[in-house]
Amino acid sequence: MQQEKKSNRWRLVLLLGAFSALGPLTIDMYLPSFPEITADFGTQASLVQLSLTACLIGLGLGQIVMGPLSDMHGRRRPVIISLLLYLVMSFVCAISPNIYCFIAARFIQGFAASAGIVVSRAVVRDLYSGPELTRFFSLLMLVNNLFPLIAPVAGSGVISFTTWVGVFIVLGGVGIVLAILATTGLKETLPPENRISSNFGQLLTGIRTLLRDRQFLGYALAQGIMIGGVFAYVSGTPFIYQKIYGASPQLFALLFGSNGISLIIGSQLVGRLNHVISERRFLLIGLLLSAASSFIALMVILLHGPLFALVPPLFCFVASIGITSTASFSLAMETQSHMAGSASAILGLLPFLLGAVTSPLVGIAGEYSAVPMGVIILSTSLLALLAYFGLAQQSRSARRGVLKEIGS
């Protein structure tokens, strides 16, 4: 019985991990193709980076739509419909006649991919709470974080045999497989009696309530700002590694993918040690690690240090994301069982909106400057610390004070 329960648990982890990994796949798999796409469309690097921005905006806005929809209509239906849209838009990306059509298709592709992210997290909250929620989410992150390792390497492999178009044909194939898995393997976890009203006014009231919760907002902003910095790293490194340091697409994929290991390390530390170190302490550790490693990375960039000096602090910076995202998700979702989809949507929206702002700023000084990326990742690390201490920690201290007052 215990073995069967463990087997079912891992089956669910793999299924939800596949859905949530659609976002990283959609973002990362075409990154090694940036120079080729730029040449093929005869356009500027900034417009190709704008296609990443469009995808991030789609992923962010899609979550704020799909999260409440999943609270209203259950988890299965929104994710199945979105996956069908995703596979169609993947093929549209592949046949785009110009960069502007490509950017528009990437926006819709990102919008469709958002359902997998938000629904997988909502399902976790439907089924688990407390330390079990943290442990299961860390397992989900283990599967999810493998895809930043796999995606750039897979993308490089595809363009070794064909053009960048092949990347989007592969993504369309992934969409087909996931649509079949969602239809046959995903059970409904939100019974009708637990669904919220489809009244639009009540929906807005619920979202406003979440945004007025200073503790929830503090955790959401800390996570969102940090991941916004990661998107600057994601957008900047294809050009920094390949243009500034002369790395081949294969070496870039190896260096970029290796940081997926650091994400896995960070998230698994939280999942395995949360009975010894609290999620709040882990969150603070992650935020401090981010600030220190991003500062070192910026110093290496300003001093024109070699590639081997830049890779370690970036490795640590990405590891801090594994720590903070796992800890902050558990802390933010713990009290939101009645609106898990909407809360998951807000947690998902903020990173992608902030990423949409930071990604194009990376190229503001041209393809041969890494300074903007260094400045952005340090700035976001410091802002995330400010959000944590100014909202989440302050709100928690205020609540403790009120409880003491009542007790006396």
Automatic annotation (TrEMBL):
Entries under SUPFAM superfamilies matching the protein: MFS general substrate transporter
Pfam families: MFS_1
Keywords from the UniProt entry: Cell membrane, Membrane, Transmembrane, Transmembrane helix, Transport
Regions that span the bilayer: 12-31, 46-66, 78-97, 103-124, 136-155, 161-186, 216-236, 251-270, 282-304, 310-333, 345-365, 371-391
Molecular function in Gene Ontology: xenobiotic transmembrane transporter activity
GO CC term, one of those recorded: plasma membrane
Annotated Major facilitator superfamily (MFS) profile domain residues: 12-396
Predominant location category: membrane
Signal peptide: none
Record localization: Cell membrane
Family affiliation: Belongs to the major facilitator superfamily. Bcr/CmlA family.
PANTHER family xref list: MAJOR FACILITATOR SUPERFAMILY, POLYAMINE TRANSPORTER 2-RELATED
Protein name: Bcr/CflA family efflux transporter
